[in-house]
């Protein structure tokens, strides 16, 4: 009879790799705008800058330049009502990235 491999608790994993508790910044991209420079120079408050995405399109999550996931924007509820959040719909294999 063989024993099943032991899995580390999050605390044990953190002790083995001190970098696991370092925060990382994720950038959420909702779209890009491509105005002409002459249009950009005339932008004023309340100007509308159209993006290349629709409201229902997926947003993309990046760490640096690397795409790590896609998701949908949603509004949080309860104590955090009004705060934006992202519900992940696709997560990259961090070894190979998203296709």
Automatic annotation (TrEMBL):
Sequence ranges assigned to domain Flagellar motor switch protein FliN-like C-terminal in this UniProt record: 20-92
Entry's Gene Ontology molecular function annotations: cytoskeletal motor activity
Gene Ontology, cellular component aspect: bacterial-type flagellum basal body
BP terms from Gene Ontology: bacterial-type flagellum-dependent cell motility; chemotaxis
Protein origin, superkingdom: Bacteria
Keywords assigned by UniProt, alphabetized: Cell projection, Cilium, Flagellum
Similarity comment: family membership: Belongs to the FliN/MopA/SpaO family.
Entry protein name: FliM/FliN family flagellar motor switch protein
Phylogenetic classification of the source organism: Bacteria, Pseudomonadati, Pseudomonadota, Alphaproteobacteria, Rhodobacterales
């Amino acid at each position: 009879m063989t024993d099943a491999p032991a899995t580390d608790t999050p605390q044990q994993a953190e002790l083995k790799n001190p970098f696991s508790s370092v925060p990382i910044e994720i950038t959420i991209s909702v779209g890009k705008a491509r105005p002409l420079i002459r249009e950009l120079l005339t932008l004023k408050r309340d100007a509308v800058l159209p993006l290349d995405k629709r409201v229902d399109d997926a947003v993309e999550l990046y760490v640096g330049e690397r795409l790590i996931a896609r998701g949908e924007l949603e509004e949080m509820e309860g104590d955090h009502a009004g705060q934006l959040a992202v519900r992940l719909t696709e997560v990259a294999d961090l070894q190979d990235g998203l296709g």
